[in-house]
Amino acid sequence: MIRFLLGATGLLAGMATALVAVLFNPLAAPVAMRSPEFGPNLVKQYESPGFRGLDLGPVSFLGQQGSTGFEEPGIEDVRVMMMVLEADDSSGKALAIKLSALSADNSILQGQLGLHSHWNIVWPGQGSYLLTGQENYWPLIRDELVASYRPPRDRYVVTSAGEGLLAGGAGRFTGVSGAYAETVIDENAGPGRLHGLLEMSVSQNR
Amino acid sequence: MARLFLASFLAGAAVVLVAVGLYPLPDPVRYASIISVVPNGGRQEDFVIHWPRDRIELPAQLHSAAGSMTSGAAILADPGAAPASGELFKLRDVEGNVIGVAGKTTTLVSDNDGAAESVSNWMLMIPSRGTLSLSQINRADLSPRLVPESGGRYIIPAEFGRFWAGSTRYRATAGPAADERGRVMQGTREFAPLSGSYAETWELDGVRPDGTTEGKIVLSTVLGIAP
Questions:
Q1: Which residues from A are below 8 Å from B126, CB to CB?
Q2: What's the whole-number average pLDDT of chain A?
Q3: What pLDDT is stored for residue A188 in this prediction?
Q4: Residue B54 and residue B178: Cα distance in Å, rounded?
Q5: Helix axes B2-22, A2-23, angle to 10 degrees
Q6: What residues of chain A, 11 to 70, have a C-beta less than 8 Å from chain B?
Q7: Within 10 Å of residue A92's Cβ, how many Cβ atoms?
């Protein structure tokens, strides 16, 4: 009996230790640095207008489709958004499209549960930026899973380190290049609430 | 006793790590790429969007933020500047399979001579393969607009019969690449090593009794390995 209890205790302790190691893996895929380390020279904020497709809850990343998902098999793991980036001192309002799909590189062991994301941002009468990046929502998902132990933060940088690229532009912005990072602020906020920040480091090549 | 505890501890840890490692995360469905080789080099692949049924309806909340919407498109007007529009679509291969989604933005900008020209950017995202970013100068402004007979609603000109004036095919792309084709700006993953050009063509299938139209937008790409 003692041997059985000892074995069961060891088994449970091993499982719990492994689970904690997975959740708080120090080798998890890093996300981009926040400013000022990132050095943005254009910061735009947006409010959540809603989305179509994949939601960003843990079950979606684990293969359980959200209620607003697309039915077609080819796009069942896709999320589309369109939003207005607010005007600020450096630039006016812009209309932005964000297309995302579950990343092919996702791995729970490596702390990577994310999306391939692409932005198409157009400024009226000026032109557009095209951004492409890899995102990791693992820190946000992990903190939701252990919320009773440690409350989630109110904002998360989701762009993976070195993976947010300003790929080019059109119109007045032809020849731009650079990098970007996105910060998600309270994903569960309703419409009209501040939803995210898009920080861009833009350089003009011509 | 200590060895028993250690063995069961390691077994428990291994069970969790193996279960997590083998958990089947979702993998995007992939359809066979339908590609043909063009005589002068490169490969041609056409992507198709049926209008109006492939337009992705936008969240109603966007209406107040963007200023105005028509079916599947949003318009942002900035005082003193030409409006900009954004559109979302499901993307198909030539056999009609939905393989991805597409986003298109359009606005009017001033060219080198100061004249206004309409420019559009497309993003074609195919989850199983990657994304293509495309840029073009338009032959004419095809973005949503207000017309007197639309009763204050924005409409997309090509989605009404009057636009076609007896023809059934309209080539939208007029540059900036050679042969009045658009430019492939960038690709990711499978498309990363590729560059090339494309053309956007609208093909009318029919006019409905209420004057609206249905048809397809064909994005015909010619891609090759970037030098």
A1: 74
A2: 81
A3: 61
A4: 30
A5: 40
A6: 11-19, 21-22, 47-52, 61-63, 70
A7: 17
Closest CA relative to residue B47, chosen from B88, B85, B86, B97: B97
Distances (CA, A) of B53 to B70, B110, B159: 14, 33, 12
Tell me the per-residue pLDDT of B70-87, one tens digit each, with 9 for 90 and over: 667 888 876 777 788 899
What tokens does A22 get? 């997975």
CB B122 within 8 A of CB B87: no
User: Two tokens at B21?
Assistant: 């490692």
The predicted pLDDT at position B164 comes to 85
The answer to whether A92 touches B78, Cβ cutoff 8 Å, is: yes
The residue ranges of chain B whose pLDDT is under 70 are 60-71, 78, 147-152, 227
User: Given an 8 Å threshold on Cβ–Cβ distance, is A77 in contact with B26?
Assistant: yes
User: What are the chain B neighbours of A137 within 8 Å (beta carbons)?
Assistant: none
Q: What are phi and psi of A64, to 5 degrees?
A: -105, 115
Structure confidence by residue, pLDDT tens digits, A81-127: 888 888 887 788 889 999 999 888 888 888 888 899 999 999 988 88
Q: Measured between alpha carbons, how far is residue B114 from residues A137, B109, B143, B216 in Å?
A: 45, 9, 20, 33
Is B213:B158 a contact under the CB 8 Å cutoff? Answer: yes
Q: Do B17 and A170 touch (CB under 8 A)?
A: no
Q: pLDDT at residue A146 above 90?
A: no
The neighbour count for residue B167, using CB atoms within 10 Å, is 8
Give the Cα-Cα-Cα angle B157, A84, B66 (nearest 5 degrees).
Answer: 45
Residue A150 has pLDDT above 50, yes or no: yes
Q: What ipTM does the predicted assembly reach?
A: 0.88
Contacting residues of A for B78, CB less than 8 Å apart: 92-93, 123-125
Dist CA B126 CA A113 (whole Å): 19
Return the residue of A nearest to B62 by Cα: A49
3-state secondary structure of B167: coil
Residue of B nearest to A91 (CA): B78
The residue among A49 and B22 whose pLDDT is bigger is B22
Chain A hits for B108, CB-CB cut-off 8 Å, are 125
Closest CA to B124 of A82, A103, A77, A118: A118
